[in-house]
Amino acid sequence: MFMTTKDTALLLLDLQNEMVDPKGKIGSGGLAKVVEERGVLANASRVLEKARKEGVPVVFVRLGFRPDYSDALSVAPRIEKLKANNAAIVGTWGTEFPDVIKPLETELIVTKQCVNPFHNTGLMNWLFARGVKSIVVGGVVTNLVVESTVRAADDAGFAITVLEDLCASPNPEWHKFSIENILPMFASVKTSASF
User: Fold this and answer.
1) For position 1, what pLDDT does the model report?
2) What is the domain range of residue 106?
3) Domain harbouring 9, CATH code
4) Are the CB atoms for 165 and 34 separated by under 8 Å?
5) What's the predicted TM-score (pTM) here?
6) Rounded CA gap, 24 and 100, in Å?
């Protein structure tokens, strides 16, 4: 294992039904297929089981909005697509997590309205309050939430490990570019076998 449990947390990013299930409003556009092909959920399940066994704090991050999207922070075109599909509404199946990685009642669920899970969520304070100095991350989409998380965490002084096989993008080239060119500037990139 490459981490110490004392000061490390595991962050699972946007691995929610809307994104990773073929019936999800985002997953149905091809992301769920890539998630399945890459074994992202199976890998995440194994890492989650090990983290729980070793007492590593786990944080589940999800994208979720009010039904009228009045809490949407971004005005980017992707938000209009979410609205048009009535996607990622808090309290719906789409913002829940698949059974294979279902959060325990004691585990933190962070709901965000933007790409960066630290913006306006209290997550950074939660990590600091627990003495976390190192984070291990995985999720979808690699070139969005994973990159955003890693950049913000690096700015805050965290040591970061990205588990490449817990990540995916709907376009494998985006994933590859991020893993090979962007993320190594901020984090160690490993596989779940090293966890």
Assistant:
1) 45
2) 5-194
3) 3.40.50.850
4) no
5) 0.96
6) 16
